[in-house]
Amino acid sequence: MTLHSPQVHGFFSVPVDHLHALRELAEHFRGYDLSNTTVVSPDLGNAKEAAAFARLLGVQVAAGAKQRFADDRVSISSVIGDVAGRDVIVLDDEIAKGSTVLELLDRLRELGARSIRVACTHGLFTAGALKRLSDQPDVLEIVCTNTVPIATEDRTDKLTVLSIAPALAEAIRRIHNGESVSALFDAH
Fold it and tell me: What is the pTM of this model?
């Protein structure tokens, strides 16, 4: 589910279907008024996925220009796209320590984003990242899937965990019946 690098496919000796959780995330966010929304990728490496997510929601897309100095030190010098006065959904594939998202939040504040929600497929939330993100007063919600278990004592009121079980079940059903798995992600 949402492999961190496409090169991972090369390590398998059998066919691999790369599943993602964009449909589940999009279904969640369709419950909000999206008329003034921009999906923001923290970096250009995730911009393609963010653009696909934005298309599912029918909204604009933007991306941060990120430079990584160390494993936990990043700089986002600018955001490419319109976020001023807009409701922002930050989309990343995974959030570990949260340093990239926290850096992006600083840029979004400087640029005058109206509201901020954070979404990811894999909520690793190591080293207190979930608490640090939840402590940001302008972060209204943090949404992730259940690909990584999150201890009950670490959860916060701002956290929403979506199940990917239906997506996995449908992929298994399609494989069993010899149907296309990639068609799961074609029309939305």
Answer: 0.92
Quote the number of domains for the chain: 1
Can you give the pLDDT at residue 71? 65
Predicted confidence (pLDDT) per residue in 12-46, tens digit: 888 787 788 999 999 999 999 999 999 999 999 89
Does 63 map to a domain?
Answer: yes
Per the prediction, the chain carries an average pLDDT of: 92
- Beta strand 115-123 with 159-162 is unpaired
- What's the chain's length in residues? 188
Catalytic residue (one of 66, 97, 131, 158):
66
Q: Do the bridges between strand 73-80 and strand 87-95 make them parallel or antiparallel, or are there none, so unpaired?
A: unpaired
Question: Which domain range does residue 171 map to?
Answer: 18-185
- Tokens 């799961």 correspond to what residue? 184
Structural domain contains residue 107: yes
Q: Which helix (H) or strand (E) holds 91?
A: strand 87-95
Active-site residue 48, yes or no?
Answer: no
8 token code pair: 């991972």
Query: Considering just the CA atoms, what is the radius of gyration of the chain in Å?
Result: 17
By three-state DSSP, how is residue 24 classified?
helix
- Supply the CATH number for residue 96's domain: 3.40.50.2020
How buried is residue 58: exposed, middle or buried, by Cβ count under 10 Å (0-12/13-18/19+)? exposed
The stretch 101-121 carries a mean pLDDT of: 97
